[in-house]
Fold:
Amino acid sequence: MPASKNNQSGRDILKTVRQSLSFKLGLAVGLIFLVAVLAFTFYLVSLQEKQAFERMVENVNQFSDTVKRGTHYSMLKNQRESLHKIIEAIGAQSGVENIRVFNKDGAIMFASQKEDIGNYVDLQAEACYGCHRRDQPLERLSMSDRNRTYRSAANYRVLGVINPIYNEPSCWQAACHYHPKEQIVLGVLDIGLSLETLDQEILATKQKIIFFASLIFLVVTAIVAGCILYFVNRPISRLVSATKQIAGGYYDQEVTAITKDEIGHLAHSFDEMRKNIRDQADAYQKSKEEYQTLFEEVPCQISVQDRDFRIIQVNRVFQERFGDRLGEYCYRAYKGRDEVCPVCAVEDTFQDGKPHFSEEVALGKDGTPVHMLVSTSPILNEEGEVMAAIEMSTDITQVRLLEEELKRSEEKYRTLFNGDPNPIFVFDLNTLEIQDANERALKSYSYEKEELIGKSFL
Structure:
């Protein structure tokens, strides 16, 4: 288990690094720099390789001319043994792959490797193609057509140069007079020099360039990543931390601008936003507290009911009067019913979305009747649909009890007033107008009550 946790932690760290801005920008800049360095350096290497090859070709041609001049006397005197020794000695030098002398028919007359002597070469081979690519051999060959490269048996490159041996007056005027005057080209001197050392040096140079470019890539990537970490990630991390603080409801952490660049301006703007959010949150909290105070302390029962007539919020006065009824159906909490009341202001509000008023008699938490004046209002959602209703109920139980007490007192007074055997009149003290009379007075004076009311007793 610990190893598994460590592996998971390592993968999480690598994932975080790969997803970081510093890694992405550092890698992008480093790759661009790497490609630019490689392209530029390989261009320079290619240019230097071309120049080195051209110098090599020039040196080989000069070497070929030197060999031809060195063997000229022996050829002129037809000293074959001397020619063999000279060519063998030159061919034994380091870097010389082979030296061969062909006659016009392609027969190898002299060679640094004895096994080649007497063999014939294909006139369409690389060494002969420069002259024999047409029906008639060329009498003169340009410098560029003399050169060729090919692979040796050991698979390294060889630079081959052919140097025509022309018939000169000293040749056809010699005592041997071996060649006729009309023959222009007597043969070809073919020299092959190994390019293995040159190719190894070029390869080593390329490897050094790749190593140097890779080192630069790593250094540049690290520097760019470090700069981004310091100048970008560090201030952004502060902004992210402040964002999390604000998301958690903490608005007092000041966001200071540690730089004067665009990120610094962003930090300043973010701090201004933080202050505005803090002020708005404080105002909202104050308004919420005022609302809660009003909701709790208003001298009437307040409840909020959802579309299913369940009580989802109540104030303190409601709890004191009806107890803890959250989650119950309103008709069961108020009246102990199992269905919605026949006349329900809340139901009317749900149907038309308008306020409604009614007078209800509910049962308090002690089972006593509670007379209420009920007012309902809709609570709308963002789409303007009624999602709940708020019900405010004013307790008028004492008023109704006083009304009943007054009614009983008045009935008692009326019974005593009309049951007295003596005539009784009620006068206005100022005008002495009759305001009331009992039944005995009406019978005694033979008046109807309407006739006496308002008459002066005088």
Q: What stands out?
A: The mean pLDDT is 79. Residues 42-201 form a domain with the Beta-Lactamase fold (CATH 3.30.450.20). Residues 241 and 253 are 9 Å apart (CA to CA). DSSP finds 13 helices and twelve strands in the chain.
